[in-house]
Hints:
By secondary structure, this protein is an all-beta fold. It has a single domain (8-328), classed as Methylamine Dehydrogenase, Chain H (7 Propeller). Helices cover 1% and strands 47% of the residues. The protein contains one helix and 28 strands. The protein has one helix spanning 325-328, and strands spanning 8-9, 18-23, 29-34, 38-44, 50-57, 62-67, 73-78, 82-87, 92-98, 103-108, 115-120, 124-129, 137-140, 145-151, 154-159, 163-168, 177-180, 187-192, 198-203, 207-212, 222-225, 237-242, 249-253, 258-262, 267-271, 282-284, 290-295, 317-322. Strands 1-28-27-26 form a four-stranded antiparallel sheet, with no helix packed on it. Strand 3 and strand 4 form a beta hairpin. The longest helix is centred in the last third of the chain and has 4 residues, at 325-328.
Amino acid sequence: xxxxxxxxxxxxxxxxxxxxxxxxxxxxxxxxxxxxxxxxxxxxxxxxxxxxxxxxxxxxxxxxxxxxxxxxxxxxxxxxxxxxxxxxxxxxxxxxxxxxxxxxxxxxxxxxxxxxxxxxxxxxxxxxxxxxxxxxxxxxxxxxxxxxxxxxxxxxxxxxxxxxxxxxxxxxxxxxxxxxxxxxxxxxxxxxxxxxxxxxxxxxxxxxxxxxxxxxxxxxxxxxxxxxxxxxxxxxxxxxxxxxxxxxxxxxxxxxxxxxxxxxxxxxxxxxxxxxxxxxxxxxxxxxxxxxxxxxxxxxxxxxxxxxxxxxxxxxxxxxxxxxxxxxxxxxxxxx
Length: 336
């Protein structure tokens, strides 16, 4: 069930749980990582219909996917401990990164050249130059890397045991600031502000923290509850995505709901209908006119609650929502 009856369903979705969605920065191509060891790429047509364009494989579940800044390549990381790069023009995938444990997070960095960052359960972030088979640098993390995001020269990684490591990518091998999550429970997702001044962090207890990096702006930090129901049930915040134009953001969770928020005026801009399933991952396209979201089991209740997937009934869906300006534009007093 989509969060809006007008939302488009993506054709030929993955056959197992969906772990990551990413739009190209150059066109409306959507890459999808899933637990069936595949990365799939779809073209979203102006009509809203989708056409499968390409796919490539890992040797285990794929946990994250991202596009290069020029839209020519897709980077993915997986439980096979490998980072793989797919060239859209040639249709070839090559291994470009290796860790001792599964790669949970992958990023192309904005630091001038084609530098990749991979975050792993082996408690490291490795930086790679695509022209070299060995990492150009490695950073030790206090715990397993669960989530990672970057914007400009800001990179933020969230690990097990609620550690948060902030990097200034002008000096990427040194942790610029190490702190603890402002939330009580396990970190699920981190997303950097579009202006690079801070990040939003979401946890399994239905709460989001808004955190500024600069010590002088710490007074702006705050946390708020979300993804809870009238029976006082608490759900995981699975994904946070910032709108590329307005800097407002979405949260989606295990309760099957999505909301758009404005951190500056501290208000919810738009709640959406519940999808009657869990939402593991979401993404905006490059200009924020399309919001893609997966409806797929997020393993929040263990393997025994996973719905069976059969040839006639695939419980994994991806929907595309046409974003209306009035739902994502900031409201109220906006400090510039």
